Amino acid sequence: xxxxxxxxxxxxxxxxxxxxxxxxxxxxxxxxxxxxxxxxxxxxxxxxxxxxxxxxxxxxxxxxxxxxxxxxxxxxxxxxxxxxxxxxxxxxxxxxxxxxxxxxxxxxxxxxxxxxxxxxxxxxxxxxxxxxxxxxxxxxxxxxxxxxxxxxxxxxxxxxxxxxxxxxxxxxxxxxxxxxxxxxxxxxxxxxxxxxxxxxxxxxxxxxxxxxxxxxxxxxxxxxxxxxxxxxxxxxxxxxxxxxxxxxxxxxxxxxxxxxxxxxxxxxxxxxxxxxxxxxxxxxxxxxxxxxxxxxxxxxxxxxxxxxxxxxxxxxxxxxxxxxxxxxxxxxxxxxxxxxxxxxxxxxxxxxxxxxxxxxxxxxxxxxxxxxxxxxxxxxxxxxxxxxxxxxxxxxxxxxxxxxxxxxxxxxxxxxxxxxxxxxxxxxxxxxxxxxxxxxxxxxxxxxxxxxxxxxxxxxxxxxxxxxxxxxxxxxxxxxxxxxxxx
Amino acid sequence: xxxxxxxxxxxxxxxxxxxxxxxxxxxxxxxxxxxxxxxxxxxxxxxxxxxxxxxxxxxxxxxxxxxxxxxxxxxxxxxxxxxxxxxxxxxxxxxxxxxxxxxxxxxxxxxxxxxxxxxxxxxxxxxxxxxxxxxxxxxxxxxxxxxxxxxxxxxxxxxxxxxxxxxxxxxxxxxxxxxxxxxxxxxxxxxxxxxxxxxxxxxxxxxxxxxxxxxxxxxxxxxxxxxxxxxxxxxxxxxxxxxxxxxxxxxxxxxxxxxxxxxxxxxxxxxxxxxxxxxxxxxxxxxxxxxxxxxxxxxxxxxxxxxxxxxxxxxxxxxxxxxxxxxxxxxxxxxxxxxxxxxxxxxxxxxxxxxxxxxxxxxxxxxxxxxxxxxxxxxxxxxxxxxxxxxxxxxxxxxxxxxxxxxxxxxxxxxxxxxxxxxxxxxxxxxxxxxxxxxxxxxxxxxxxxxxxxxxxxxxxxxxxxxxxxxxxxxxxxxxxxxx
Amino acid sequence: xxxxxxxxxxxxxxxxxxxxxxxxxxxxxxxxxxxxxxxxxxxxxxxxxxxxxxxxxxxxxxxxxxxxxxxxxxxxxxxxxxxxxxxxxxxxxxx
Lengths: 487, 484, 95
Description:
heterotrimer; A: 487 residues; alpha/beta; Amidase signature (AS) enzymes; 2 domains; 11-stranded mixed beta sheet; 15 helices; 12% strand; B: alpha+beta; Arc Repressor Mutant, subunit A; 9-stranded mixed beta sheet; 3-stranded antiparallel beta sheet; 16 helices; 40% helix; elongated; disordered C terminus
């Protein structure tokens, strides 16, 4: 049975349709793996629901048309699942069971997806290590003393440890791509708006996007084919207009122009990471792609711009958590204001409180123009820098993070340092672009290194095909951590 | 010293859409608490607002009717504050690019300038339950669309304020964008007021008064607050800029707690709602579809129908009533008679049923037919009133009712003459009384004639014949005769 | 930019957070470092640049004015920390 865990989601889907294995069998496999795994990747395992669903899907197998039908997966715990606890890894949401289902998970369910549970994350997706979770940190399957990255650390660890075959994450400033990189899996942050945010508990509404974390680019394409598209309940959503992604994976990259932004390979980047990322360019070049260097002179502005905008929106988005309508309420309060103060002060963790205060500050009277308005102007400049870059190339290749996974406990003491490690990912969200992270090597400690591909709006097809081409010639994505199962 | 009062208004009007501004829940008034709600309007996490098309249309229509310039590129912003009637802890409103600006309203020779008009969502309702000493939040009203109309400080008296509000209400009702019922909270007003020595060019420190739920309350609150401020200044004290609440029972305003005054709303662009761009074609279409407003109707009724000003006022006081009048006239009813019926029977019937004109079951063809039957002499006025009452609630068939109840007026003059002769002969005492100068006896005789004719005669004809005969004239030869 | 304790108190009140004294001191220092770092944006001349709130030129996303039945009240109230069959309960908020 364990060799099933080495299959990709598409391979397992095919095995299920052929009748090589039943859906309840693979569900048991996933649930057992989740229960025995030491990574703390899940906040809620929905075992009973999953088994019920497995039996039901097995009965309907004859009519199955989706390649992902019956394949066990997991959902980040900031994506609302009807009747199943959705906590955002925060104390303040308590035992919140949404009376509605997020659009993305509903679409997957309609395509026969089977969720085994809700994955751990940084509280309200605020963090880069999954250490800010109220439910405790997630451990990196490659080295249990290291962080899996964040905020979708639970989703990345669940996929990397071969517990489930793919997972949904969310990415506001790198929260899919960076943990994918630290855990050696492939992850995509889609073009802003192409996956409905309905049911995604908002961190920063103008930047948040749901996307897949999976074993390889083809699995990501299959998931995106299901979840993308305009949703009438999300006014910012639109159709990706990129056709069927999975069918577009030819591996043919001849003539594709890949840009290397020189400003992304300068100071602060670990040497091993630099070498591994640049090697991606060589592989793609050997398949006929062209590689050009280009300037990207806005790198020093991306982190402050991102943190001002994200914190501002977060301070507003998180105001609704007040102990009145849902979730947790503090005890021993005296009057309304005290109820608010006690619930929020005790219900939120330090990182969340830090960002709420920062966001409140940049929006407050007297500081709005200097910080928030200024950040919106710089955002326009950053967007323009990308527009210019895509005039001369089809894709950009950059690192995902300056280094490989940090040790647990290393990052929390210095928030600003943690923020700065997001330097390669946040600009993609500011400009609303699609970004992909894929394994491209290992450092001397055996930790995965990720490479980032960035495309123009709706450039998912190009991104995934380039990643697919790279994965045809390499096997980094096939390697599994010790304790996981290697092919 | 003479003092001048300077007043500006912020009026919130609930729009008469079927659904809320950002979700598809009904806006129907009432309902059990929290039964007109969904995850969006109760601020559940992960839910998103999607703008109702009709809210935009209604806001633009209101702006056009108030002579505003319409913002071609308009956006929503978030206004952040914590209060249990606001489940998201922010109100989606418009600060930076409101949909309308720079309008004006003429009130009896004076122009009031509109600073801006913007769209926003209403809050929920809080009711304190003394039994459990807890406040209950009901979000049925939460998310009902509002427009807020802000004037410049152009008012000097309460009368001007009321005149403006009357005009505003009438305009919005005619546009069909709001029913403007103050008692249901669909029109609410905040009053900004300051005082200054007459002739001064500078504005004094203003206070804002909230919780004004009737025109009467507004007028009284203005009088009270102006006096309070004048007294303060006269005593050498200062007016504090603050929000004050009008207490209907105590007839006084009082300052709200200072915490509610210290506000920093941290407005920023609403990321969940894409901007709105209005095309010239869209605006032209709405402009072309604007209905004739009350003022224009009044002028037209006076010019075309020669109706007295009073009648014009009454009939145009409600757009449904005006439409009813126009339709009735279009069906051939003489305008003055239609007006009389509407101001008399129609308004009385509506008032007896506590019914809005737009909910009236009676239709213009029915009233027009009734008026025609009276005009043709086939129903007398009193009988017509009875028929009106009978058919009002079901919009019944007037002709059928008259036929079934045998109510058609007797138009055979010889029949009337015969009855008059008989009544005079059998009531010699009354005849003698009348001739002796007792007018009351005449009424009795009329009554006797009408009774014999079962009320179906034209009372004017009976009057005329009785007077003639009592004056000594002989029985008239057959005049007119049956019309059919 | 100097972040004072008063400023932290002010934004804490706006955010309905009441940090214990020891947390407040640490937070003040961290915010000062973070905000100080953000001043790097002032190196970029953005005069005349239109602030960009929405990254896509998406406009006029509108909904028809058609009623969809509301959600079952019991479901909406099920997660409320102070249980009540009809409403969300809070300490006295009106006179």
